[in-house]
């Protein structure tokens, strides 16, 4: 007979627990319980207070930092020096900057005249070489001569007595945005970088304008009273050193760079990409050093990350549509290459491990030792026929003195004869566990019952 494992009765344990719970609480236990509850409440309150303080601190700090990243209006103060008596005032509205098309769109508004002055008709001229061709504001043939065709004419009489039929005094210019990355540094100009240096690209543009009286061609002064509007994604600053305003008109030079918010966003995304790449590196290294289990998510995540990197690259604000910017060389290209390499190495490693484990299981001999199992009666003894093991089945018969389990079909399907003789077992009433050895294990026939204390 094979040794059997018996389940220890737990009646005494339950009785002990019940007796201890039924005993009346003492004063000492009540005091200790109250102190513990008070400490737990104080700990929870402390955690809530700390969490609230951290939440407020994070919100205030985040809002304070992002508030400093918001850009204001463009600086425009250029004082008129030695200007003529006749003057007109303009307001500039910077609408849009397109780094891909290298254009800057500006609307110019004429401020009201002093209608008590005598009648005055003023022609406004702009440099056509500083404006884009085909925008309706540039000459067909470029020339170094002064422009002769005015871009806008102001009639003070019509302006002061304007009706709803008169046109509003506003005109638009589309200026050229210039980057001088490939040229030598020009004295008086800051260093320039083209779109390839995104998000650290730098540009500049110029606005040149002068005014003449229509009847005498005498110069009139132009005062840029104010400018407003902040182009999205860009920081526009007036270059006071290169700007001037006199009797010959004004020349305004502006430096353009990416806003601090755009630069911060791109840098954070690049750092996040590198952190993910380094994490995949350590996952791959761990697969070679430690024989830990590799879950299926470890293979899905690299593929999802590859698509995420490319989609994030396409959604960067103002980024060039093609490939070849600085952010691509330092952030996107190496990340995609390394993650692809790490994923391939990880897959090969896992495949090699699975093949090795399968080969070891195939070479391993079948176990010769006999084992016994402790099965609850609920798992084995039911009504009707019940399978006792992987190949045999048993039949339960009830009797007043107990239950009888008979092995009537101990051979697996397909075998004409049983592998072991038929055996029967009388299970006493109140038995909760039987111990048996599967009949397929080298012809064993022992089926024994273990009687436990009735409940």
How would you characterize the overall build of this protein?
The structure is a single chain. It is built from 7 helices and 17 strands. A hairpin with a 5-residue loop joins strand 12 and strand 13. The chain has helices at residues 11-22, 27-69, 156-160, 260-289, 297-314, 326-363, 377-380, and strands at residues 87-98, 103-110, 121-126, 152-155, 170-176, 202-213, 219-228, 234-238, 244-246, 249-258, 373-376, 385-387, 393-399, 402-409, 424-428, 433-436, 447-450. The protein starts with 10 loop residues before the first helix and ends in a 5-residue tail after the last strand. Helix content is 33%, strand content 25%. The strands form 3 sheets. Strands 1, 2, 3, 4, 5, 6, 7, 8, 9 and 10 form a 10-stranded mixed beta sheet that branches. The protein is of the alpha+beta class. The protein is elongated, with a radius of gyration of 44 Å. Mean pLDDT is 71; it is low at 1-23, 370-427 and 431-455. The protein folds into 3 domains: 87-258, no CATH class; 262-363, no CATH class; 373-450, no CATH class. It holds the Pfam family DUF4436. InterPro entries: DUF4436.
